[in-house]
Amino acid sequence: MSPVRAATNDALLEIEDLRLHFPIKAGLLKKTVAHVKAVDGVSFSVYPGETVGLVGESGSGKTTIGRCIVRLYKPTTGSIGFRTAQGVVDIAQLDKRALQPIRRDIQMLFQDPNSSLNARMRVGDIIAEPLEIHAIGTRDERRSRVEDLLEQVGLGAEMYNRFPHQLSGGQRQRVGVARALSIEPRLVICDEPVSALDVSVQAQVLNLLSDLQGELGLTYVFIAHDLSVVEYISDRVMVMYLGKLMETAPTKRIFERPTHPYTEALLNSIPKRVRGGHRKRFVLTGDIPSPVNPPSGCVFHTRCQYVKDICRTETPALRPLPDDPETSVACHLAEEVALEPYYTAEERRDLESDRA
Ligand SMILES: Nc1ncnc2c1ncn2[C@@H]1O[C@H](COP(=O)(O)OP(=O)(O)OP(=O)(O)O)[C@@H](O)[C@H]1O
Ligand SMILES: [Mg+2]
Fold this sequence. Notes:
By secondary structure, the chain is α/β, with parallel strands linked by helices. It has helices at about 60-70, 95-105, 115, 125-135, 140-150, 170-180, 200-215, 225-230, 250-255, 260-270, 310-315, 345-355; strands at about 15-25, 30-45, 50-55, 75-85, 85-90, 105-110, 185-190, 220-225, 235-240, 245-250, 320, 325-330. The structure holds adenosine-5'-triphosphate (ATP) and magnesium ion.
C-alpha cells in the first residue's frame, strides 16, 4: 500500500460531475419514458500508485462508474480526465480511434472469472489476446511474455495449454489478473474480483494484487460491496449510494471515525472481529430506493436513523471536513451526530499486533 496522497493536481484520473442516466424505453415506438440514474453527479480523483476502494450496496452504480472509465459506456455528462505522456485527455469525449492508446493504459478485472474468460480458449491464448489486439510483439515474444505472466501470478508456465474449466476459481481469477496485466496498464479497475471466490482464496488473490501493485507501480480502483474486503487493500475509500458519493476518506478514518450515517450502517453490517466486541447494532433495513425516482433531498434520508427535515428537501453537497480536509462527506448533520466507529484506534492496534 502506498501512503495516502494529499490532494494535488498530479492526479492520474480526475472525474468531474459524472452522470450516466440509462434511458428506459417503452411502447411500440420505443419512446424514452424515464431514466435510471445509475451515476448521478460523481466527482473524485485517483493518484498514481494508490488503491481507492469504491463501496456500496448492490445497484449503487459502482460497476457503471468502472465501465465509464474504460469507456464500455459513454457517460451522459461529465468528464473523465486521464493523465498521459501527452497531457490530460477527457476519456468521456474521445472517439474510437483516440481511445485506442488509452485502452492499453486502463484495464478492467471482472468479478466472475467463469463468465469473463472464454471457455473455448486455452489459458495462454486468453492471456495473449490483449497483446494480439494491440499488435504487441512477435508470436514468440508474446508466448514468452505469457509464460512470464503465468509465473508472476503464481500459476506456472505449464498452465499454458489448459482450459478454464480445468482450473479452480482462484486459479481462473489469476488468469484474469494475468490477462488484465499483459499489456502493462497503468490503471486497473478491479470490479469485485474476489466476490465469487471462497474466503480462503480471496485473501490469496488480494495479496497477489497487492504484490503486483508494488512490483509494477499500478493504480487500482477497487470495487466491493463490503467494507471489510477493501480494508487492507485500499488507501482511501469512497462510499457510494444510489449513484452518488456519500463519503470519501482514508481507510483508517472510515473504520475509526465514520462521518456519514450510511458508512456507519455499512460498518455495522460487518461482523465485529475485535475480541469481546459487542455493541449496539443499527442494521440497514428496507430496500435501496429506485434510481429511476430517487428520494428528494439527501438520497439516503428514507433509511437514515438520524434524519431531520432539511434532509428531505435539500441535497447535501460532498464537502471536505474543516478539521480533516482528506475526508469529504455529503451529510447535513456531519458535525452534529456522533457515529459509532467500527473499532477504536486502540482496538485497531490490538488487531494489528495480533496479526503480526
Ligand atoms: N445497461 C444498463 N441499462 C439500464 N440500467 C442499468 C444498466 N446497467 C446498470 N443499470 C442500472 O443502474 C444501476 C447501477 O447499476 P450498477 O451495476 O452500476 O450497480 P453496482 O453498484 O455495480 O451493483 P452490484 O453491486 O450489484 O454490482 C442499477 O439500478 C442497475 O439496474
Ligand atoms: Mg457491480
